[in-house]
């Protein structure tokens, strides 16, 4: 149902009604739109009790009436922001739990009693979940007014922060289900919890002053360009500079602190300034997307330069609405922070926002609320069942979505109904996602697709991009933004190089790689593809802001790196990255790795580019390569991020392989892996070993790569026996080798090695502090202590030697300052000891010593006689590895649960074990979540048991785990494709 008649007004009712209006604590946008609805209700003669955590002046500055009552209570914390552009997902869930879950019973009791005390006729929520439940408990009808709901927003937070918070989402949805209907605002998200829906126009605050009046009061003439800087407060560390603005521009700053000093061309606005009036006086706005800013920018036709926020799912829906009405332009966060504003400001002044819809949503919503409180029943004319099903499917996708699958606004969902509250022409037409094309679209000048389905799909996606470009058709704004950027990336008449690199499943070895262990790794089916084209700077197709940057420098065309990375909506990052390749030079020499790490860390939404662009700097530094041409890259990875299957390594290997192929640089797969490790260790700053990159580069399908990490000696490949199969089961808990746990365990391991070397040195005859006599040394062998005193790799110490001599001398833990005082250094170039932190030492030192032994044993058993004993022994080694991880502090409840489920299957064998079963499981990679590796018989029964584990895990946790199965060739085996669009296609 849609209500937007401009002729309908909120008339004074014969009944004096009492409204309880609950307002979420997230941002002023909610409070400002509530103000407009409240104003109309009060003008109609009703009492409104606003329950809020927002400052009083937000309401009292717009509504001065004795019928307005403000009750300061925070029942909904919204999203906790680390800064103005970044949401802290875990903190948001923890804060909501603290605010609304733990005290839930007392909240419900208090609110029920209060609602009765004020004789409320209707509860209105924007968009506080518990208010709907409290209304139901009090026997009072409730209505929500919103463009999003917290179950949709929190769904992704749960996936990132851990499934133990999932009950929060379900509780919120259940609370919303008590609501009678939803008054839905334009730019809305899927909201399946609500039964009936009424759509209304934009809710915006009215204007009090004209543009001319505001400028006169500010003393600013019409010849001056004005931009309003509106981020809801400024993050710490921001310092506005005079040169950020072009000549003839002034900036009006909202939310500046009283003691903040601003340049002369920046003007500080009062804390309680009435923003709509200021907006009408400006030529554009620079800020972050929220309902309040977008709706008022559209209503008053103000061009909006926006910077993406991290991890707020409402944004993409509002952004699409803003761009549909030609009112917005995105600014890259790096340009915001470095002051490269001029191209965006100049572009914004050329926009002509064309929103022509009604802006009386506050009045319309107030009339509906009044009628409902007076007893009227609104029945939606929409098919609520199908609508809720569509919304539920989107929410379900969000809760299960895997990297590479961008479902922020699915095409079928948009096509099914106008989900932005706009004209139906906004929807994408079905069947346009991929043009039916294949390798026939391209002439393959070098290489072979090797029958890989994902490579064929990637080629089809390239053909689709090219078709969209050649056709001359405009790209609909609801298409994925990254694909719009990719369509403009390449010159389709020139050669394109393409590479592929898979992720990996850590079968055995894991974190022992950095201690020199033998490791066994399997390249998985999921892979990253990279397409690259090199072009002379004068012919490179640059994005507008990159071109403007070059023109501003006045140096003529220079080489630029441009990257489009698919999956940006999923990962809440920018879809594009660009830089002048000269930024990698310091005079005649490449910049340092430390400087590069700082360069990429400036913008959290573009830190991902370090994995790709970093390969260029490593080639410059290590091989002396110089890049004279522009580089355009398209990166598409199906390797899920944060699941412990080396998504970062696959991106690095595919990127460096592509750059090398396009520039004719010959690098062996082994050397390429070592170079990619430098990217991750020194530019990204993640202290990983080399097995991930080595497997992605050197692996082969259906084989285990055997590598001795001293530092990276590939010993060969072992065929996976036909009766054995490996699976990876994702726990749903995100893993990162850049995390504190992984780094701390690595530090503890190197501390242990340093202690062992020191103990061994003290045992030698020349030591006056030795604890052993000369006769003991003769028995044990001086040679052993000499070798152990200069131990390069901890894994070269055998388990029996460790237990006999060193085990009792290694402390369980040690503080950083105590270790540094006694040993000075732990001799690890990629980690730094924190003097104030306590590090486990005994378990991290013991793990690689025993893990190396387990890997050697596992490798030997793989080629032994086929039997249940063989499978049981292999499985036992996996189990032992898993519990050793936990002893180091790298386990997790979720991975423990999966291993326990495998054990239940393992020990539930009946009379016919040959029918198939599972024999072992272990956490993989860096631990602390991620994926569990499972070993079993290669049979249908084993596959069925994997499915049963999925179901049991879902019943226990609410999360259906992703299963990795199958293998594929590494980058070295794949090589590269050199392709060119067929001439007949170009001319046809």
UniProtKB/TrEMBL annotation:
The keyword Nucleotide-binding applies. Residues 489-533 form the Galactokinase N-terminal domain. Keywords: ATP-binding, Nucleotide-binding. It comes from the Eukaryota. Residues 611-699 form the GHMP kinase N-terminal domain. One of its GO terms (biological process) is carbohydrate metabolic process. Pfam families: GalKase_gal_bdg, GHMP_kinases_N. One of its GO terms (molecular function) is ATP binding. Gene3D superfamilies: 3.30.230.10, GHMP kinase, C-terminal domain, Glycogen Phosphorylase B. This is L-arabinokinase. It comes from Kalanchoe fedtschenkoi (Lavender scallops). The lineage of its organism: Eukaryota, Viridiplantae, Streptophyta, Embryophyta, Tracheophyta.
């Amino acid at each position: 149902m849609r209500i937007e008649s401009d002729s309908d007004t909120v008339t004074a009712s014969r009944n004096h009604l009492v409204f309880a209006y609950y307002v979420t604590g997230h941002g002023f946008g909610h409070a400002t739109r509530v103000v407009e609805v409240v104003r109309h209700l009060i003008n109609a003669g009703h009492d409104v009790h606003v329950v809020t955590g927002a400052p009083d002046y937000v309401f009292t500055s717009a509504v001065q009436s004795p019928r307005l009552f403000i009750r300061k209570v925070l029942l909904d914390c919204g999203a906790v922001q680390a800064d103005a552009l970044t949401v802290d997902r875990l903190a948001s869930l923890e804060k909501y739990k603290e605010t609304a879950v733990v005290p839930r019973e007392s909240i419900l009791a208090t609110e029920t009693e209060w609602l009765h005390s004020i004789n409320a006729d209707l509860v209105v929520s924007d968009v506080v979940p518990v208010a709907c439940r409290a209304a139901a408990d009090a026997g009072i009808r409730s209505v929500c007014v919103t463009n999003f709901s917290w179950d949709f927003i929190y769904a992704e937070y749960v996936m990132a922060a851990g499934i133990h918070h999932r009950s929060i989402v379900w509780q919120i949805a259940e609370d919303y289900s008590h609501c009678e209907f939803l008054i839905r605002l334009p730019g809305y998200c899927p909201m399946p919890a609500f039964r009936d829906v009424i759509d209304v126009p934009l809710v915006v605050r009215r204007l009090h002053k004209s543009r001319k009046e505001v400028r006169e009061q500010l003393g600013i003439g019409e010849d001056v360009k004005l931009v309003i800087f509106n981020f809801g407060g400024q993050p710490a560390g921001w310092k506005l500079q005079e040169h950020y603005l072009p000549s003839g521009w002034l900036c009006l700053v909202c939310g500046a602190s009283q003691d903040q000093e601003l340049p002369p061309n920046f003007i500080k606005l009062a804390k309680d300034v009435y923003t709509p009036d200021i907006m009408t006086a400006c030529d554009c706005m620079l800020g972050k997307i929220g309902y309040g800013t977008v709706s008022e920018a559209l209503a008053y036709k103000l061009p909006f330069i926006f910077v993406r926020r991290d991890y707020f799912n409402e944004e993409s829906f509002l952004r699409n609405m803003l761009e549909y009405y030609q009112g917005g332009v995105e600014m890259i966060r790096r340009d915001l922070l470095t002051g490269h504003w001029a191209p965006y400001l100049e572009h914004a002044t050329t926009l002509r926002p064309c929103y022509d819809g009604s802006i009386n949503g506050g009045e319309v919503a107030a009339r509906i609320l009044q009628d409902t409180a007076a007893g009227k029943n609104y029945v939606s004319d929409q098919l609520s069942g199908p609508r809720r099903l569509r919304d539920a499917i989107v929410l379900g996708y969000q809760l299960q979505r895997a990297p590479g699958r961008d479902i922020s606004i699915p095409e079928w969902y948009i096509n099914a109904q106008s989900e932005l509250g706009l004209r139906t022409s906004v929807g994408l037409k079905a069947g346009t996602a991929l043009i039916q094309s294949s390798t026939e679209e391209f002439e393959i000048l070098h290489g072979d697709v090797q029958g890989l389905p994902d490579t064929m799909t990637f080629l089809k996606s390239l053909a689709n991009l090219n078709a969209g470009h050649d056709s001359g058709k405009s790209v609909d704004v609801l298409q994925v933004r990254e694909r719009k950027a990719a369509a403009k990336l390449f010159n389709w008449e020139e050669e394109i190089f393409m590479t592929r690199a898979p992720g990996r499943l850590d079968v055995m070895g894991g974190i022992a790689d950095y201690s020199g262990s033998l490791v066994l790794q399997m390249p998985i089916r999921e892979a990253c593809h990279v397409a690259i084209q090199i072009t002379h700077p004068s012919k490179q197709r640059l994005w507008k802001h990159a071109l403007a940057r070059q023109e501003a420098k006045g140096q003529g065309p220079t080489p630029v790196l441009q990257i489009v990375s698919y999956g940006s909506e999923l990962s809440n990052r920018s879809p594009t990255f660009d830089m002048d390749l000269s930024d990698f030079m310091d005079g005649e020499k490449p910049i340092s790795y430390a400087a590069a790490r700082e360069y990429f860390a400036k913008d959290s939404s573009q830190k991902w580019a370090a994995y790709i662009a970093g390969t260029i700097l490593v080639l410059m530094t290590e091989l002396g390569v110089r890049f004279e041409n522009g580089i355009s890259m398209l990166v598409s990875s199906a390797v899920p991020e944060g699941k412990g299957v080396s998504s970062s390594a696959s991106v690095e290997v595919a990127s460096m392989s592509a750059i090398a192929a396009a520039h004719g640089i010959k690098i062996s797969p082994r050397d390429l892996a070592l170079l990619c490790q430098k990217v991750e260790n020194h530019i990204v700053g993640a202290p990983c070993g080399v097995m991930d990159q080595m497997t992605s580069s050197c692996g082969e399908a259906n084989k285990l790569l055997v590598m001795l990490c001293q530092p990276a000696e590939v010993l060969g490949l072992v065929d996976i026996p036909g009766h054995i199969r490996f699976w990876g089961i994702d726990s749903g808990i995100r893993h990162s080798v850049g995390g504190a746990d992984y780094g701390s365990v690595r530090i503890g391991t190197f501390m242990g090695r340093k202690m062992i070397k020191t103990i061994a040195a003290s045992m030698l005859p020349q030591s006056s502090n030795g604890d052993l006599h000369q006769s003991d040394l003769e028995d044990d062998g001086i040679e052993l202590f000499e070798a152990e005193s200069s131990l390069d790799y901890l894994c070269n110490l055998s388990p029996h030697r460790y237990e006999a001599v060193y085990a009792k001398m290694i402390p369980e833990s040690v503080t950083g300052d105590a270790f540094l005082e006694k040993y000075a250094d732990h001799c690890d170039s990629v980690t730094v000891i924190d003097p104030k932190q306590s590090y486990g030492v005994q378990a991290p030192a013991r793990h690689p010593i025993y893990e190396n032994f387990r890997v050697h044993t596992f490798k030997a058993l793989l080629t032994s006689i086929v039997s249940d004993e063989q499978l049981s022994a292999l499985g036992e080694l996996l189990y032992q590895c898993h519990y050793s991880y936990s002893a180091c502090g790298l386990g997790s409840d979720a991975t423990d649960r999966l291993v326990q489920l495998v054990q239940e299957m393992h020990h539930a064998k009946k009379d016919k074990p040959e029918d198939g079963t599972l024999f072992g499981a272990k956490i993989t990679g860096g631990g602390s979540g991620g994926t569990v590796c499972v070993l079993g018989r290669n049979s249908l029964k084993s596959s069925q048991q994997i499915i049963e584990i999925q179901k049991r895990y879902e019943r226990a946790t609410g999360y259906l785990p992703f299963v990795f199965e199958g293998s594929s060739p590494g980058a070295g085996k794949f090589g590269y494709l050199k392709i060119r669009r067929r001439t007949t296609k170009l001319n046809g």
